[in-house]
Each structure stands twice: as C-alpha cells, then as structure tokens.
Amino acid sequence: MHLVLRSERAPEDVREFEELVISAGGIPMELITGSRRAPDVKFFAGSGKVEEIVASVAGHGAELVIFNHNLTPSQKRNLEEVLCCRVLDRTDLILDIFAQRARTHEGKLQVELAQLEHLSSRLVRGWTHLERQKGGIGMRGPGETQLESDRRLVRARVKSIQKRLVKVRLQRQQGRRSRIRAEVPTVSLVGYTNAGKSSLFNCLTHAEVLVADQLFATLDPTMRRVQMAGGETIVFADTVGFISHLPHRLVDAFRATLEEALNAQLLIHVVDSAAAERDVNIQRVNEVLTEIGARDLPTLMVYNKIDLVDTLQARVERDAEGRPVAVWMSAATGVGLPELLDAVVELLPGGLIDCQLSLHSGLASLRAALYNLGAVTAEKEGLNGDMVLDLRIDPVARARVLKKFGTTIEAVTVDA
User: Which of 210, 306, 384, 396 is the most buried (most CB within 10 A)?
Assistant: First the structure.
C-alpha cells in the first residue's frame, strides 16, 4: 500500500518500495496506491482504500499487507483486525531485510538492538486484554501488567546488547588507532543500496564479498588492505547501502559500522549511473551522510555501471584546481579502474604532520577525542595550566575533530 500524502515534503519512492519487498523475499501480488491530504488517524488510509485492500487480500489470498509508511501501533492493530492478516510498515520491512542479511556477530547484535528499540515503542496497548494482577488474600503479586513485564525484559536485553556493542566500538577504535600510527589511510565506499559498491570493492581488493542485484546485499562491513602500484598501502572499507528515510533506529544501531565512513580519510560515493533516479539517489545518500556527520569529508564521486549506458565513456572529471572530483567507470568490466586508483592516491592526504596544541580545561573532551584517534604522542602542562599536546595526525582528521568541538586550529595551535 502506497499513499501520496500532500502534507509530506519528501514522499516515499514507490519503486524503491517494490524493490524492498522483493529483497525481503516477498512476492508482490498487487500494489494499491492513493492520495490523501493527511493520514487517517484510525487506519492511515481512508475507509474506501481499506475496503479496496480487504477485497484485494481476499481475491489473492494474501497473508501479508505492507505499507510504504510508518504506522502507529493502534493503526497496525486496527488494520489487522479488519484485514485478518499481518500488517507491516516500512520500518518493519527494512528491519526484516537486515535480520535476514546479518552474518557477523556484530551485525546480528545491531539488528536485534534496532528491532527491540522499535518493538519497545509498540508495546502500548499490546496486552489490553489482561488486567493488572489483583490483590487480596492469595492473589497478591508483583503488581505488574504483562505490558510492564515485557517492557522490563526488553530494557534489560537492550542494555545487554548495548554493552556488547560498546566493546565492538572499542575494538574498532583500537584498529583505527593502529592504522593511524602505521600511517595507513582508510577509504570508505558509500552509496545508495545496489549501486555496485560490493562489485567495486571486489574489483579494488580482489575480495569475494557477496554481490547480488538486490537491496542491502551487503550488511556487515568488510575491510581489506591493498598495496597500490606506487607502494602506498590503503585500507578500503565496504559499508551498508543507504536508502531514503533510513530509520533512525537503524542509524543509531549501526553507528559502530557507520563510523568506518565517519573516520575515513576519503569517501568514494558510488552511484549507479544507469539508474533512472540517479540524482535523487545521490541526494538521499548525502542526507544520510549529513545525519551521521560525514558530509564534510573529502569525497570522490564514482559513477559506476557505465557499461549499461551506450553514451557513457570512462573518464575523470576535475575541478578548477585540477583535483579529481568524479570518475566514470564500470566495476563489472574494469573499464576506468586505473583512473579511479590514480584519483584515490591523488586525493589522499600527503601523510601525517607533527603539531602541538594547547587546550584549556574546557576542551577536555577534545583531548579525549584526540587520544581516541591515537594522535597524541606526548602531553605536558603549560605555564597557565593548559594541556599541551604533541600530535602526529592527518590534517583532514585534525580539522574535522576541531570543528566538531567548536574550535579552530588558530585558536589552539602552539607550534604548527
């Protein structure tokens, strides 16, 4: 079910919705569309559309109805009572796909966390058929309703998963610190789902990451170290694909994974050049990058799949200063790959620099962030009680972390 809501500024994409259903393993029987000024409070769709859905479910013998929108718990319950079958909304659908694709222990934990946080907001009135346990002789209990008991169990499980993910995050930070000390830059592949990131990753690193023509074929991050022709060593990271309106719970749950993009020295934004909505997909990815704080990172646009469009040729686009900004290529055929590798090496920072920063007590959190990056080589106390840090750090990473904490290099530099 897909409704065009005139009150929505950014409506959902019906074609993306169909691809999500197929990626989840569903067999679409009928797509019902309509338009409203605003959602109906009881059913989301109007009563006429609900009757149309009832007839379609009966005609096709459907066991599941999926809405390309987020429904409230009461709307889902009301629809299930009328339709006599399960009803899923957009977030339920995406979570189901993630649950199917998670392979690593970390990925499974992140999916379960997102599912539980989504469930916790939907336990309201889920047990209205049960009354609070009664008091009296022989009938006194803990005074919990089934709803309160379920909430307590969910909270306990969420806390347990979050503790495990903290350990994962610490392990990733340790790995990043080791790469920084060894002066090994990280290049992360980001892009709209099914844009060809995994194909390009395999082409770059000779890895064997799953490649499939479906949304979210890659869920767990993969990293490979590559020795370039000029002797440079680069770590490439393949990340989960983005879609429009990625649920916030997924963004939060997968923050440990998305940090690989956030802490990269360079982003390769992979675009399906043959897609009908190419420009829209670019905008969707940029919105997610903005949400996770990675929008200002150096980015190289890579327009993939040029072999599917006869008029496109492999080439490199450069800005007014001669720096590469976009590469047109095909990961399937390898056309344009040498140009991409040259562009990556050209855009990576020229190495780590040594500098000294003087931080007052109000910037203690900045000091902790620099230690987490593994950039601090020595520390001493300044004449006025400030913390004077000796750093060995990439200039881009330095500018990024200073901006995050609201200061500039001029304000804290002792001897750059």
Answer: 306
CA distance 79 to 90: 15
Amino acid at 155: R
Q: 86 by DSSP, 3-state: which?
A: strand
Q: Are strands 233-238 and 315-318 parallel, antiparallel or unpaired?
A: unpaired
| H or E element in which residue 35 lies | strand 33-36
Query: Is residue 263 situated within a structural domain?
Result: yes
* Residues 239 and 378 grouped into a single domain: no
At 48 the three-state DSSP class reads helix
Give residues with Cβ within 8 angstroms of 308, minimum separation 6.
273, 274
Between CA 28 and CA 25, with CA 247 as vertex, the angle to 5 degrees is 25
Chain CA centroid to CA 339, Å: 28
Q: How far from the centroid of its chain's Cα atoms is residue 123's Cα? A: 26
* 313 and 376, same domain (yes or no): no
Query: Quick check: 43 and 82 in contact, CB under 8 A?
Result: yes
Residue 397 lies in a domain: yes
Q: Domain check: are 191 and 282 in the same one?
A: yes
Token pair for residue 103? 């392979």
278 neighbors 271 (Cβ within 8 angstroms): yes
What CA–CA distance (Å, rounded) separates 4 from 14? 9
Domain region containing 80:
2-88
SS3 content of the chain, % helix, strand, coil (to 5): 40, 20, 40
Give the CATH number for residue 74: 3.40.50.11060
Residues 291, 217, single domain; the answer is: yes
Q: Has residue 226 been placed in a domain?
A: yes
CATH code for the domain in which residue 201 is found = 3.40.50.300
- Say whether both 30 and 60 belong to one domain: yes
- pLDDT tens-place string over residues 346-402: 888 665 567 888 888 888 889 988 888 778 888 998 878 888 998 877 666 777 788
Residue 287 sits in the same domain as residue 393? no
Dist CA 272 CA 308 (whole Å): 10
What does the pLDDT look like over 299-338, one tens digit per residue?
999 999 999 998 899 999 988 877 889 999 999 899 999 9
Amino acid letter for position 281: N
Q: Distance (Å, rounded) from C-alpha 333 to C-alpha 306?
A: 9
pTM of the model: 0.64
Statement to judge: residues 242 and 359 lie in one domain: no
